[in-house]
């Protein structure tokens, strides 16, 4: 008998301190098909998320290839494919772009293969249509097209038959049975009636109960399962995965210009309204201008950072992102870099024009641009940590502001003070060096903190 790919020993899960099922021990072997059964709320989704590494068990052990699985285990992320309730489809992207994003970080797949996979799920001719125009079942088929390209040894599929028509259900059943015949392991949760030969059934009903296997009708002896390579080389490197993340974020931002322009318009409006409120006296505006510009820039970044992960969490993209076989902190860094390029860099470019409006000198304008160039990435990195910690909470925007504002204040003080010093003719090399050191520290530490916060937040969802 082959060694299990994934095995649980006395595994138990909880939701808000309430046990979902009694200790469960099972083994998922190559070539097997397992269905997790149970009533609503029995813990089926929680069990699959735990097996995928998204949630931590309340008790017990998860073994991968006979060894205890560590937290954030690379073997799990590299060899397990997980599809949850939300398939991670972006309505603004086309099926082709969505499938490319789902495969990002795992395999480099040419567009011809992506198109073929989409055609295999019945989406021929719809590859370049925005997903928001497709039905729920068609959007589900986009995620299922990934199965035609996947080579992970273990598939964990949660309610994967939802919204599919009869033809889609039949095609998916054949695909899963073929996958098991090739030596892959398939674990599904579904309220759809499944009657596959050799299907293993595990029922969760307060206590985990292993039901006897159904005896299939006599059939020819199948060929031995194909050996599964658990150390497959990853064809996508970290830098390519970061580039894919930035490319996707840029594409999404350009297709929703309102979200992109709102912080910039806020920045311009706040700065231009101050002279109307406090008077047009140029000497006074020159004295308060650096503070006005820096406070406006800070609030503009804070306005945009709240949505950094929120949309991804709502549509399931964040789960797929976390499960990529790439260091999560690098993907976070790429996300923050994209956020700064789209939201922070335009502030730097607009600052000289608005600074001239407030009567700043040439030296002050130069110092303003340099401080914003160094300071706005720090604001984005700190804001990303707050956005990850408040993800999914009610009133998350208010909590985010309360959480990050104390950390924003030093950046604000140094930025404003540097511009005032430059305007007074005082050398500002030391202040700029301190802000540069702060940026280096933020780039070094913030992605790790944000990655840890995302994992904590996801495990509590």
What does this structure look like?
The protein is α/β, with parallel strands linked by helices. The chain has 15 helices and 12 strands. The protein is 55% helix and 11% strand. Strand 11 and strand 12 form a beta hairpin. Helix 7 (238-255) packs across helix 12 (328-357), helix 8 runs parallel beside helix 12 (328-357) and helix 13 runs parallel beside helix 15. The chain starts with 5 loop residues before the first strand and ends with a helix. Residues 207-234 have low confidence and may be disordered.
Write the layout of secondary structure elements.
Elements: E1 6-12, E2 14-15, E3 18-19, E4 24-28, E5 33-38, H1 44-52, E6 59-64, E7 67-68, H2 74-79, E8 80-83, H3 95-103, H4 111-120, H5 136-145, E9 154-158, H6 166-181, E10 185-189, E11 200-204, E12 208-210, H7 238-255, H8 257-278, H9 282-305, H10 310-315, H11 317-322, H12 328-357, H13 362-389, H14 396-423, H15 429-459
Which features would summarize this protein structure in a list?
461 residues, alpha/beta, 6-stranded mixed sheet, 12 strands, elongated
Sheet of most strands: 6 strands, mixed
Strand order in the largest sheet:
8-9-10-5-11-12
Order of helices and strands: EEEEEHEEHEHHHEHEEEHHHHHHHHH
Class inferred from helices and paired strands: alpha/beta
Between the first and last Cα atoms, what is the distance in angstroms? 37 Å
Number of helices in the DSSP assignment: 15
Computed Rg: 26 Å
Care to count the β-strands?
12
Low-confidence sequence ranges: 207-234
Estimated helix fraction: 40-55%
**Apparent shape:** elongated
């Amino acid at each position: 008998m082959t060694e299990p790919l994934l095995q649980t020993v006395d595994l138990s899960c909880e939701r808000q301190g309430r046990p979902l099922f009694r200790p469960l021990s099972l083994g998922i072997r190559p070539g097997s098909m397992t269905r997790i059964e149970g009533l609503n709320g029995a813990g089926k989704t929680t069990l699959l998320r735990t097996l995928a590494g998204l949630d931590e068990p309340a008790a017990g052990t998860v073994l991968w290839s006979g060894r205890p699985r560590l937290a954030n285990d690379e073997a799990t992320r590299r060899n397990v494919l997980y599809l949850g309730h939300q398939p991670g489809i972006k309505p603004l992207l086309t099926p082709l772009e969505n499938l490319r994003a789902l495969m990002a970080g795992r395999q480099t797949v040419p567009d011809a293969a992506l198109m073929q996979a989409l055609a295999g799920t019945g989406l021929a001719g719809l590859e370049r249509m925005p997903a928001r125009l497709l039905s729920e079942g068609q959007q589900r088929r986009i995620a299922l097209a990934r199965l035609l390209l996947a080579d992970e040894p273990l598939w964990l599929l949660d309610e994967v038959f939802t919204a599919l028509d009869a033809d889609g259900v039949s095609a998916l059943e054949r695909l899963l049975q073929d996958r098991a015949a090739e030596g892959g392991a398939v674990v599904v949760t579904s309220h759809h009636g499944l009657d596959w030969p050799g299907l293993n059934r595990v029922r969760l009903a307060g206590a985990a109960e292993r039901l006897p296997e159904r005896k299939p009708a006599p059939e020819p002896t199948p060929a031995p399962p194909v050996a599964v390579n658990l150390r497959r080389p990853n064809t996508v490197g970290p830098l390519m995965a970061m580039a894919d993340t930035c490319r996707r974020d840029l594409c999404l931002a350009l297709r929703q210009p309102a979200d992109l322009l709102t912080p910039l318009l806020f920045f311009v409006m706040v700065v231009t309204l101050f002279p109307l409120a406090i008077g047009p006296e140029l000497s006074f505006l020159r004295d308060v201008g650096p503070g006005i510009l820096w406070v406006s820039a800070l609030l503009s970044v804070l306005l945009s950072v709240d949505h950094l992960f929120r949309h991804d969490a709502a549509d399931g993209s964040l789960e797929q992102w976390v499960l990529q076989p790439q260091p999560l902190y690098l993907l976070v860094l790429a996300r923050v870099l994209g956020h700064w390029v789209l939201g922070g860099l335009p502030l730097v470019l607009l600052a000289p024009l608005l600074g001239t409006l407030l009567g700043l000198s040439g030296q002050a304008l130069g110092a303003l641009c340099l401080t914003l160039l160094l300071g706005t990435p720090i604001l984005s990195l700190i804001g990303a940590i707050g956005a990850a910690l408040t993800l999914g909470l009610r009133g998350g925007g208010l909590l985010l502001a309360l959480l990050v504002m104390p950390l924003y204040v030093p950046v604000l003080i140094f930025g404003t003070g540097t511009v005032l010093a430059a305007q007074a003719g005082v050398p500002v090399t030391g202040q700029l060096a301190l802000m540069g050191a702060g940026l280096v520290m933020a780039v070094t530490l913030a992605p790790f903190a944000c990655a840890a916060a995302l994992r904590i937040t996801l495990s509590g969802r």
